[in-house]
Amino acid sequence: MSFTYIRDLQPFQFNKKLKVRICRIWRPKLIGSTDQFGGLQCILVDQKTDAIQASVKEIDYDFVAPKIKPGSIYEITHFYTGRNKPSHKIVPHVAQLFFNERTTFKELPTIQPHIPRHRFYLVDYTQLSTRIDKIDILTYVFGHITAIQPLEQKMVGNERLEDKCEVCIENIRKEDVRITLWGNTAKTFDAQALQQSTSPIFAAFTSLKVKQFQGKIVLNSSVSTLIFINPDIPELAAYKTIFNDSTHAVKMLPSSTTQLMTPQYLEAAKKLSVQELNVLDPETHKDTPILCRAAITRFDIRNGWWYKACPSCFKQL
Questions:
Q1: pLDDT (mean) for 18-42
Q2: Could you tell me which residue, 314 or 75, shows the higher pLDDT?
Q3: Which of 100, 140, 157, 192 has its CA 20 to 30 A from that of 279?
Q4: Cα torsion through 178, 181, 182, 183, rounded to 10
Q5: Which intervals hold domain Replication protein A 70 kDa DNA-binding subunit B/D first OB fold (predicted)?
């Protein structure tokens, strides 16, 4: 059986053979869960530099996971293909692969022609505005890390606390963008190690969602987001030429709570009275910082008195 190129794969096929590198693997947690997973996901790339996603169901995880590792090249047989999902695609391909306990993986030595270690579909910062709220395919960016806001917790949807970390990056034109990492992606991001580095840090961020907040573009991680520090890709050389000295070390930003209480923030906030707050439409002012100075005159304790707080430190949320 001859090898099939990734670009020639179509949905609903079987009896194919691939020669590919597994360039990344991740095990996504189910949203809202701390100990339940949604199987295993992989991105494969071949010598034509095309990529495709492969999925492993949770029931087959223990059969497949021990057989593969990121970075290695494999001859893969006994898999089948399906149609790629209509939204939140990881790579632009019409098909998706499915591995199970019958799938065979034969590890190969380094071969010629070369198969790249990574395959990122990078979006230029000037094109991010065209991706706002688009969910057909997730977004990749690359940049020089300039600052990090350390891990903290934030209430999501008024129902659960979620780990959060923010990263600022810039391109070689010194255009910048902010990335918000959530959940396990935020928790496993080693901000301290990056801060201690005396050399410029460059990173590729995969599978991001593009949003707009207070007129600025913000990128948010998804359950499929992975971060690659100083990856071996063609773009890296140009960045090293521009940011080639220790003055470009990573800065640490204060927490969100500290930022909200700065004199500059309070000065810029819209000042309103309690009477004005009562008639304010929250939908049209949800992104507007507001300052109201008032005195507490009494508490309505007929049904108890409470405020939303962290269950550990009782700090108000």
A1: 88
A2: 75
A3: 157
A4: -170
A5: 3-106
Yes or no: say if 108 and 47 are a contact pair by the CB < 8 Å rule.
Answer: no
CA atoms 61, 64, 70, 76: torsion sign: negative
Total-model pTM:
0.80
Query: Domains of the chain (ranges plus CATH)?
Result: 6-108 (2.40.50.140), 125-255 (2.40.50.140)
* pLDDT score recorded for residue 297: 84
Asked if 243 and 199 count as a contact pair (C-beta separation under 8 A), the reply is no
Query: Tokens 């659960």, residue?
Result: 160
Closest CA to 83 of 62, 97, 103, 63: 97
The predicted model gives 96-110 an average pLDDT of 95
Give the CA distances from residue 288 to residues 108, 113, 121, 192, 282, in Å, rounded to whole numbers and listed in that order.
57, 56, 35, 32, 9
State the first-to-last Cα distance of the chain, in angstroms, to the nearest integer: 61
The residue type found at 50 is D
Please name the helix (run of DSSP H) or strand (run of DSSP E) that holds residue 239, with its range, or none.
Answer: helix 235-242
- Token output for 264: 């500059």
What pLDDT shows up at residue 206? 98
Average pLDDT of span 12-16: 96
Burial 230-251 (b: 16+ CB within 10 A, else e): ebebebeeebeeebeeeebbbe
Helix, strand, coil in percent for the chain, rounding step 5: 20, 35, 45
